[in-house]
Amino acid sequence: MMTIRKASVEDAAQLSKMGYASYSHHFAHLWQEKSELEAFLHQEYAVPSLQQSLQSEAEEWFIVCDPEPVGFAKVTWHCAIADDGPAGTLLHKLYLLPGKTGKGYGEYLINEIAREAQCRGETFFWLEVLDANPHAQRFYQRQGFTFIKSTLFRTPSQQSTLHIFGKAL
User: Fold this and answer.
1) Contacts of 130 (CB under 8 A, 6+ apart)
2) Distance between the two ends of the chain, CA-based, in angstroms?
3) Half-sphere exposure for 146 (CA within 13 Å, toward CB)
4) Which of 37, 78, 82, 85 is spaced 20 to 30 Å from 152 by Cα?
5) Predicted pLDDT of residue 156
6) DSSP per residue over 126-159, as a string?
7) Pairing relation of β-strands 87-96 and 59-65?
8) pLDDT range class, residue 48, cuts 50, 70, 90
9) pTM
10) What is the mean pLDDT of the chain?
């Protein structure tokens, strides 16, 4: 049975393991420099970094299980797109383990996070998705998100286009 639970500091090691596995599986091929990928993964998924994030009142992590953990999401509550843009719930991450996409887990996470956001009084839900990930773009569009604008993610050796999608809650 599919369930979602809010993650706690005790989940940092599990989130680290899932983060390294899912991100590497889905996106390692997009990185030109292995050292930059490793630095990014360490910044995002090292246990101390996760422990700090898990203690933040502005952020929340969710783990989807069936019955074992199969993926996770991270959000920031009431975050503005830009100084002049709307504010709402930012979906920082929604990653599923290898072999777990296309089974309804992502949709379940999106719906539960949207419900939680509405309970918190949020009226807008947004995210960034890689231009190089058209499958994810189509998934988010099926969930009611629409394109707002594009931005760039830069590393010393490359840049990637990110599309900002959003929807009213």
Assistant:
1) 27, 30, 136, 160, 161, 162, 163
2) 27
3) 4
4) 78
5) 86
6) EEEEETT-HHHHHHHHHTT-EEEEEEEEE-SS-E
7) unpaired
8) very high
9) 0.93
10) 95
DSSP label at residue 19: H
What pLDDT was estimated at residue 89?
97
- Predicted pLDDT of residue 23: 95
Contact 106, 71 (CB under 8 A): yes
Q: Which residues of 122-145 are buried (b: 16+ CB within 10 A; e: fewer)?
A: bebbbbbbbeebeebbebbeebeb
Pairing state between β 124-130 and 87-96: parallel
- pLDDT (average), residues 18-44: 93
Could you tell me the two tokens for 86? 């709307």
DSSP 32-56: S-HHHHHHHHHHHHSHHHHHHHHT-
Measured CA angle at 142 (ends 138, 147), to 5 deg: 65
Angle of the 47-54 helix axis to the 34-45 helix axis, nearest 10: 40
Rounded CA-CA distance 20/16 in Å is 6
Backbone angles phi, psi at 120, to 5 degrees: -85, 5
- Give residue-wise pLDDT tens across range 132-160: 999 999 999 999 999 999 999 888 888 98
Q: H-helix or E-strand containing 92?
A: strand 87-96
